[in-house]
Design brief:
The protein is mainly α and 293 residues long. It is built from 13 helices and 2 strands. A hairpin with a 7-residue loop joins strand 1 and strand 2 (54-55).
């Protein structure tokens, strides 16, 4: 009997870690593993949610290379990234440099810049939609007051994506300010003191000391900005619907439309998988470039 009791105690001790981990494993299987596997299966099928799935082989994959609108959406997303990432880094690093110094109300400004990050993206987008209004928008009213012409912030195909990039930078810059502040505070002060003794200017200290020392932080900001840019959806969906003339149609918005407007679930899943591989490729290239530099 004692032997059986000891065996039961040992088995309970061995089982306890698995029971503790089981909620996470269940969540991982249900909300991560299953959707990924199901999406891969969908890439080889045609399905409109209502009718049963039909095996279509590689037709979905072949259709990608002839889908001009999808490549247009990819190009729009890349244009957004080209505008958004450098602007995000410059603005965030400049603000972090200022907030890293001893200035009045430093704590207030640090919190104020972070507020837009925690505000709902839908709320921020609707707010900026009103600011960018052509006839009633605050920005155009201010321009008219100054004797300048109105700008079609959301109705001009050449300006619409720039407007969205400006709004996205305003919303997210607070997060990257915090990250850069953490990076700046890890730079040893002895390096700056030695540079001062050598007569280095502020710009020389920034280029030769600050930037190399916060290189891991810069890489993190670039990757996070890239992932955020590739997932661009709420802003064009609410502000422009992908227009005008598909100039703000992002890749994620196009995938969404294929799934929930046209009910091409198989093709939408194929686009999603292809787009995921594209994101991984871009991030790997960024990593190699930044590390090389």
């Amino acid at each position: 009997m004692k032997f059986d009791v000891e065996i039961m105690k040992r088995s309970k001790k061995q089982l306890l870690p698995y029971l503790m981990v089981s909620p996470y494993l269940t969540h991982l299987l249900v909300f991560t593993a299953f959707p990924v596997v199901f999406s891969i299966i969908l890439t080889f099928h045609k399905w409109n949610i209502i009718s049963p799935m039909e095996f279509s082989g590689l037709s979905n994959w072949q259709h990608i290379f002839s889908d001009r609108l999808f490549w247009k959406a990819i190009l729009n997303t890349l244009v957004f990234l080209i505008i958004h990432i450098p602007l995000q880094i410059v603005v965030a690093l400049t603000l972090a440099e200022v907030l890293n110094r001893k200035i009045m109300f430093r704590g207030f400004f640090r919190a104020a810049f972070f507020i837009p990050v925690v505000v709902s993206g839908v709320v921020v987008t609707i707010l900026w939609q009103q600011l960018f209004g052509y006839d009633t928008g605050v920005i155009n009213r201010l321009l008219v007051t100054l004797g300048l012409g109105k700008v079609g912030w959301l109705i001009d195909p050449n300006v619409a994506m720039v407007s969205i990039a400006l709004m996205a930078t305003w919303k997210n810059v607070g997060l990257y300010v915090i990250l850069f502040l953490v990076g700046l505070q890890t730079v040893p002060k002895q390096y700056y003191e030695a540079a001062d003794l050598e007569g280095a200017s502020h710009w020389q200290k920034f280029i030769r000391i600050t930037v190399p020392m916060i290189n891991p932080t810069i890489f993190m900001v670039v990757v996070l900005s890239t992932l955020g840019g590739f997932s661009l959806f709420i802003e064009p969906y609410i502000m422009t619907g992908g227009g005008p003339l598909n100039s703000t149609l992002s890749a994620v918005l196009y995938i969404y439309k294929q799934a929930f407007e046209y009910y091409h679930m198989g093709y939408s899943a194929t686009l999603g998988v292809f787009f995921a591989f594209l994101i991984v490729l871009v991030v790997v290239m960024q990593k190699r470039f930044i590390e090389k530099e």
